[in-house]
Amino acid sequence: GTSHQGGYSHDAVVYALQKCGIRHIDTAKRYGCELLLQKAIKESDVKREDLWITTKLWHSDYGYENTKQACLDSCKRLGVQYLGICRSIGVSNFLINHLEQLKEDCKITPHVNQVEYHPFQRPQELVDYCRSRNIVFEGYCPLAKGEALTHPIIIQLAKKYGKTPAQICIRWSIQNGIVTIPKSTKIERIRENCEVFDFILAEDDVAIINGMHEGRHVSWDPSCIV
């Protein structure tokens, strides 16, 4: 992830691509770093066809012509010929009512829905809805902006597995079948976030973290959009 919160780090992006095998870059026009990412992608020497690049439009870009131009502008800033999101159209922060409304107005089912997902915010009904319609569920803010890292349950499980609280949260999200998008500008944190494939949480422990859900948002609440 490259969201504007926490700033942008060129070295961190290059490290993630070169050393950690990261192949999904999540960004947005609003984040203001598409042009910077062009430099990082080129420096990494990772082939374009090996990357999945997601960017997002802003409200001012809605409408056929505006949308088409906004995608072309993003491609130019990123220095690429195409975007994964153009080949597979997705949405972000869509709840079930929003997806139902979209179905009325659009013939194409979104390929992906990117929504806040962490131990305090586990919208299982939405996850099930997306899966039943072959919509990939992506989760952002997997650490709840750091709030989950100090929770006693997460700390206890980190000690049990000999992992960090962040790794417990990310592993839990992955085991729940979520395409997980952590974000960091620090190389050591990026490495830490990637080292989650050498252990498996027991089903009972996954259930314990599932039970932490309380509907809390650390980003914004899409239910405010009718």
Task: Map the helices and strands.
Elements lengths: L9 H9 L5 E3 L7 H11 L7 E3 L9 H15 L5 H4 L2 E3 L3 H10 L6 E5 L7 H9 L3 E5 L11 H10 L3 H11 L3 E3 L5 H8 L8 H8 L16
Parallel strand pairs: 1-2, 3-4, 4-5, 5-6
Pfam family, one: Aldo_ket_red
Protein name: NADP-dependent oxidoreductase domain-containing protein
Family: Belongs to the aldo/keto reductase family.
Structure description:
The active site is at residue 31. Helices cover 42% and strands 10% of the residues. The protein is built from 10 helices and 6 strands. The chain has helices spanning 10-18, 34-44, 64-78, 84-87, 96-105, 124-132, 152-161, 165-175, 187-194, 203-210, and strands at 24-26, 52-54, 90-92, 112-116, 136-140, 179-181. The protein has a 4-stranded parallel sheet. Strands 1-2 form a two-stranded parallel sheet. The longest helix is centred in the first third of the chain and has 15 residues, at 64-78. The protein starts with 9 loop residues before the first helix and ends in a 16-residue tail after the last helix.
Highlighted features:
226 residues; two-stranded parallel sheet; oxidoreductase activity; 4-stranded parallel β-sheet; 6 strands; NADP-dependent oxidoreductase domain-containing protein; NAD(P)_OxRdtase_dom_sf; NADP_OxRdtase_dom; Aldo/ket_reductase_CS; alpha/beta
